[in-house]
Amino acid sequence: MSMSRSIGVKDVQETINLVITHNGDQWIAENEEIIFIGKTLNELDDHIKQKLLKTGYKKVIVNMFFDSQTIPVWIRQYASHYFNRTIHLDL
Q: Does the chain have fewer CB atoms within 10 Å around its N or its C terminus?
């Protein structure tokens, strides 16, 4: 995962950066190493939490940046901040 981490330390705060999109049916948050999927944002957040519980880390910040390439070109100039979100997890 794209995380900033101190080697061998599991109780430090981790940061994961993801790109988020919607395919018409479900939310997809991913980077080059991992993918999370959910029908709703709450389901997406639950999927992220379930997968990250297995890592052993205690605190994780998940930044999700909306893929503006999925927005029609004519509206991008008005929606540069269209949908970015961050969740803080205490696992």
A: C
- How many whole angstroms from its chain centre is CA 14? 13
The CA distances from residue 39 to 21, 59, 61, 77, in Å, are: 12, 25, 21, 28
Residue 87 in contact with residue 45, Cβ under 8 Å? yes
Does 5 reside within a domain? no
Domain of residue 32 covers 13-90
Q: How many domains does the chain have?
A: 1
DSSP assignment of 6-34, as one string? -TT-SSSEEEEEEEEEE-SS-EEEE-SS-
Which pTM does this prediction carry? 0.79
Q: How far apart are CA 54 and CA 82, in angstroms?
A: 31
For residue 82, what pLDDT is reported?
A: 67
